[in-house]
Design brief:
By secondary structure, the protein is of the alpha/beta class. Helix 12 links the parallel strand 3 and strand 4. It comes from Lysinibacillus antri.
Length: 288
C-alpha cells in the first residue's frame, strides 16, 4: 500500500530544486498552512513579499494545476491532522531502534531548511554589526532562553561587553539604560513572542539600537522592530526542536564575527581561558 505524502512533505522533498523566490513561498506554506487555506494567491504574495506570479510558479513547480489545488491539498492535510490529534505521539509508536535516526534526521532537516532560508546579505551585515558593536545584548525568555544562553556564552568567549537580559524589572531597566547607537541587540524569539519581549525591543529601537531577531516564524511580531530577521527550523517543529537549528545558526554568526579579525578574537579567548584556569587553581588551593 502506497504511503500518503502531505503537500508539506512534498515541498520539503523538492525544496532544494526550487528557485530562491519559490523557496520563500515554500517555507511560508510550510509554516502557515491555515493562511494558505483561507487567503488568495495575491494576499499570500504580499505577506511573503513576492509577486503573485511567483506564488503561482511555485504551484507549477510542485506539479499542481494552480493555487486552488494547493489550497485543496492544504485543507485535506489539515483535516487529517485533526483526526490524528488524539493519537499517540508518532515517536512513541515507532520501534525503538528507529527513534534515534528519526529524531536526528529531523534535526538535520531543520538545519538544512535554515540554510536555504537565510539571506546571505543579511547574514554578512549581521556579522559586520556583531564585529563592530561596542556592546552586545542578548534577549530570550522562556523556551528561547536556552539559545540566548548559548549565544551569550559563545560570544563571551571571544569578546567583552556581552550582556544577557534577565527576566526581572531591575535588570531590564539597567540594561536598556546602558544601550546606545553603538549597541546591538539579539532577540531570540522561538516561541510565542509576548508583550515583555516586544516592549523591550521597542524601547531599544527608540534608542537607535540595531536589532537582529532569530525566530521560528516569518510572521513573528518581532519583525516590526527588528532591522534584520532570520527564520530557523522546519515544518511543524516545537520550540524545543527548533533550538537545534537556532544553536547552529548562532554558532555560524559567532564564527563569522571571529573571521573578521581572527587574531584579535583568538587572543582574547586564550587570555580568558587562562584567567578561568588561574581562578580554578585558586579555588582548589583553598579546598586543600
Amino acid at each position: 500500500m502506497e504511503t500518503y505524502m502531505s503537500i508539506c512533505d512534498e515541498i520539503k522533498k523538492r525544496f532544494i530544486r526550487l528557485s530562491r523566490g519559490q523557496r520563500k513561498v515554500a517555507q511560508f506554506v510550510i509554516d502557515n498552512q491555515n493562511i494558505i487555506a483561507t487567503h488568495t494567491a495575491s494576499d499570500v504574495g504580499k505577506l511573503i513579499g513576492v509577486s503573485e506570479s511567483t506564488v503561482i510558479r511555485f504551484c507549477y513547480a510542485m506539479e499542481l494545476s494552480g493555487f486552488s489545488e494547493l489550497q485543496e491539498r492544504i485543507k485535506r492535510d489539515l483535516m487529517g491532522d485533526e483526526e490524528r490529534s488524539q493519537s499517540d505521539h508518532p515517536l512513541i509508536t515507532k520501534k525503538q531502534e528507529h527513534l534515534l535516526s528519526d529524531v536526528m534526521n529531523r534535526d538535520i532537516t531543520s538545519i538544512l531548511n535554515t540554510i536555504q532560508l537565510v539571506n546571505e546579505k543579511d547574514f554578512e551585515k549581521s556579522v559586520k554589526w556583531v564585529h563592530e558593536a561596542g556592546f552586545l545584548y542578548v534577549l530570550g525568555f522562556r523556551q528561547s532562553s536556552a539559545t540566548a544562553n548559548f549565544l551569550t556564552c559563545t560570544l563571551g568567549n571571544y569578546r567583552k561587553h556581552v550582556k544577557q537580559i534577565q527576566h526581572d524589572v531591575e535588570n531590564i531597566v539597567q540594561q536598556i539604560g546602558s544601550m546606545d547607537e553603538q549597541s546591538l541587540l539579539f532577540v531570540v524569539a522561538l516561541d510565542a513572542v509576548l508583550e515583555d519581549v516586544l516592549t523591550i525591543a521597542k524601547l531599544a529601537k527608540n534608542k537607535n539600537v540595531k536589532i537582529v531577531a532569530i525566530t521560528n516564524s516569518s510572521l513573528s511580531p518581532i519583525r516590526d522592530y527588528a532591522d534584520i530577521i532570520f527564520t530557523v527550523g522546519a515544518q511543524k517543529q516545537s520550540s524545543a526542536e527548533t533550538i537545534i537549528a537556532a544553536h547552529s545558526f548562532t554558532h555560524a554568526l559567532v564564527e563569522g564575527m571571529v573571521s573578521q579579525n581572527r587574531k584579535q578574537y583568538t587572543a582574547y579567548k586564550k587570555a580568558n581561558a587562562q584567567i578561568e584556569s588561574n581562578f580554578l587553581f585558586l579555588e582548589k588551593s583553598k579546598i586543600i
